[in-house]
Design brief:
Distance between the termini of chain B: 68 Å
Strand order of the largest sheet of chain A: 10-9-8-7-11-12-15
Largest sheet of chain B: 8 strands, mixed
Number of helices of chain A: 6
Structural class of chain B: alpha+beta
Strand content of chain B: 15-25%
Radius of gyration of chain A: 18 Å
Oligomer: heterodimer
Order of helices and strands of chain A: EEEEEHEEHEHEEEHEEEHEH
Number of strands of chain A: 15
Number of domains of chain B: 2
Helix content of chain B: 25-40%
Largest sheet of chain A: 7 strands, mixed
Strand content of chain A: 25-35%
């Protein structure tokens, strides 16, 4: 329940409102490591604490990358940190994307906006054993081209690893040569075998719901579709009750859930 | 565990003194602000002698009894959770030092509580909170410390209240497990005594020091009759068969909207509930901005803030919040902790300002679904006839 001291080692500006912080433990103790999909609770002095997913690691087990969009009081304080400043960190918490289960299958990753952040370590894990997986697709929806995250990595993912990367934006100016529209329209533009495929989705709840429905339409079984849920979170260890989503505590039973498990709840309003 | 003994009022006083002598902070029922509340007890003089209570949906009133019974009432607004899982507690402090800050965690509370006058439903409620705070992947060290140090002196209920339904929830009224000592208050024209039994080694050890007299067969029988009689007086009942499926299948039932027209979203039910465990944290800073503290405070699923995420609250409507509370208590609690979250104490009914009664609301949903099924089979029958 008590944050551990971490230092901001590096700050990477990702877009006009988003930064990635590279956090390292102040005391060089062995960190527990993390699984793709897990999150940490980040605390800034005198402001507060928020759950932020882990978007990667710069040096194996003893550093966490956190990609943070400046939208609230605490995320603003986090996004305003300078190199060398201290943050409190609790975690990692939660379960992981089905990396093992996806072996010898095609993988479709669907992300909306900042939702690409928790999916990036999953993609890294897949690419680190590229030959173990079939077709890998990344379908990424963003508000505008200025909001696209990690776009400097797209070419590597495409060229070196053969990932089918498709991007769509909600609104675009005349210079934009790519797709415009919701991310679900990209599903039919990549090839995968729906009978032997795992999908991983992260984005706004409505985007995940429609993506799952489209994937089912395309032939995927409900238990092969995974998504991460978001609810208010205070303790991250199952005590505070805030993150309940139907029968699940998102902090300890999630944040990654298979669609078949949460379908009755994700399609009910105000759960 | 061992043979029951008998003590009189003086013996009960000796029990309190023995507990104090052994370093326990004795907490028990007292009268304050026209209600039975749990507070420090130093002798039997502090106990609510000759008081009883009248309870109904939205109603609680203390009344004088015709005798000097010390446990002649049911439950007040307090539950023991306010001691094991306090309404507010500091988790840690942080001190700023130029650009840096250091965090100092709060040490677990080592208070030795002896709870006097616990009812069967309350012991069940604590067993349920144990599952949340101790028997889960993470442990709340503060709760665990208090819980391990605590001694439980229970009382078999001599009467049931109008809002009680522990029989339906299989949580009472007879105290059967999880206690160190259990009392049954026996009152007749000439005698006022307590049958006392130990339920643990610690209880047995204390009982030896209290020097209880041996219980006669008559007293044991009488005590048994008292609690059997209480079981027959339950003011409410809840049909629990398939309750999880019933609620999960009726997340969109019109009853939720109808309840919301009465529900004030005031959170009283969650505050008085002995199993509701939700909390929030508040980060506070001093005026100079050099000292910060994190406080854990009871929270309620009835507040707007409870479900707020970036973009707004998930549960904006009162009906969604009441649905969350009741489906959690009676349905999803079973998935999460393998037990119901309700012990049938009836506090949420008594202390609801508008008297919303969850036993009634469950019955409304149950009856409507049974009606639908009957109508359906009825129309089928008609079709066959035609």
């Amino acid at each position: 329940m008590v944050p551990r001291p971490f230092k901001v080692k590096e700050i990477i500006r990702e877009s006009h409102d988003t930064v990635t912080l590279d956090l390292q433990p102040e005391k060089p103790e062995k960190e527990p490591g993390f699984a793709p999909g897990q999150f940490n609770m980040l605390y800034t002095f005198g402001v507060g604490e928020v759950p932020i997913s882990i978007s990667g690691s710069s040096s194996g087990a003893d550093s966490y990358l956190h990609t943070i969009r400046d939208v609230g009081k605490v995320t603003h304080a986090l996004a305003s940190l300078k190199r060398g400043q201290k943050v409190g960190l609790r975690g990692p918490f939660g379960n992981a994307w089905p990396i093992e289960q996806a072996k010898s299958r095609d993988v479709v990753i669907m992300a909306g906006g900042i939702g690409l952040a928790p999916l990036r370590p999953a993609l890294y894990a897949l690419l680190s054993q590229r030959d173990q997986y079939g077709n890998i697709s990344l379908l990424y929806g963003s508000r505008t081209r200025e909001d696209l995250l990690f776009h400097h990595e797209f070419e590597t993912w495409k060229g070196k690893y053969g990932v089918q990367v498709k991007v769509s934006v909600d609104t675009a100016d005349r210079d934009w040569k790519g797709n415009v529209g919701v991310v679900t329209t990209l599903i039919h533009r990549v090839s995968f075998d729906p009978s032997n495929c795992i999908a991983m989705i992260c984005g706004p709840e409505i985007m995940m719901r429609f993506s799952a429905m489209e994937l089912v339409q395309a032939g995927l079984e409900e238990d092969k579709i995974y998504m991460t849920m978001e609810r208010n979170m205070k303790c991250a260890v199952g005590f505070c009750g805030h993150c309940q989503f139907g029968p699940a505590f998102i902090c300890k039973d999630g944040p990654v859930f298979s669609y078949d498990r949460i379908k009755p709840f994700i399609s009910t309003r105000e759960i | 565990m061992n043979k029951p003994g008998v003590i009189d009022r003086e013996g009960l006083n000796r029990l309190i003194q023995t507990l104090i002598g052994r370093g326990y902070q004795v907490v028990g029922p007292t009268v304050r602000d026209e209600a039975i509340v749990y507070d420090n007890v130093f002798s039997i003089e502090d106990l609510p002698a000759g008081w009883t209570d009248e309870q109904e949906g939205g109603t609680y009133r203390l009344k004088k009894r015709s005798d000097d019974a010390l446990f002649g009432y049911t439950l007040g607004p307090h539950s023991w959770k306010r001691f094991l899982h306090p309404p507010e507690r500091r988790l840690w402090q942080a001190q700023k030092d130029s650009l840096d800050f250091d965090i100092v965690p709060e040490q677990p509370d080592n208070t030795k509580y002896a709870f006097l006058g616990m009812r069967s439903c309350e012991l069940h409620a604590i067993a349920i909170q144990d599952k949340v705070f101790i028997q889960s992947p993470h442990t709340d060290l503060h709760y665990q410390s208090l819980r391990q140090n605590a001694l439980f002196v229970a009382v078999n209920c001599g009467q049931a209240g109008n809002t009680c339904f522990c029989v339906s929830m299989q949580t009472g009224p007879k105290v059967e497990a999880g206690y160190d000592l259990v009392l049954t208050e026996i009152l007749d024209d000439s005698h006022h005594s307590f049958l006392i039994e130990a339920g643990s080694e610690a209880g047995k050890n204390i009982l030896e020091e209290v020097k209880a007299g041996p219980a006669g067969a008559g007293e044991i029988k009488k005590a048994e009759e008292i609690v059997t009689n209480t079981a027959k007086q339950m003011g409410r009942a809840m049909e629990t068969g398939n309750i999880k499926e019933l609620l999960y299948e009726n997340l969109e039932h019109p009853a939720w909207g109808e309840i919301a027209e009465r529900c004030l979203s005031c959170a009283n039910c969650t505050m008085v509930c002995p199993t509701c465990f939700c909390s929030t944290v508040e980060d506070v800073t001093d005026v100079a901005g050099d000292h910060a503290e994190r406080w854990q405070k009871w929270d309620s699923c009835f507040t707007m803030d409870f479900s707020s995420i970036h973009g707004g609250a998930v549960r904006n409507s009162t009906q969604s919040r009441y649905r969350q509370w009741m489906t959690h208590k009676l349905a999803s609690w079973q998935d999460q902790f393998d037990t119901s979250g309700c012990v049938g104490c009836g506090r949420c009914i008594t202390w609801c300002p508008v008297g919303i009664d969850l036993t009634r609301e469950v019955a409304v949903i149950r009856e409507s679904t049974t009606c639908q099924e009957e109508n359906f089979s009825g129309s089928e029958a008609q079709n066959e006839n035609s």
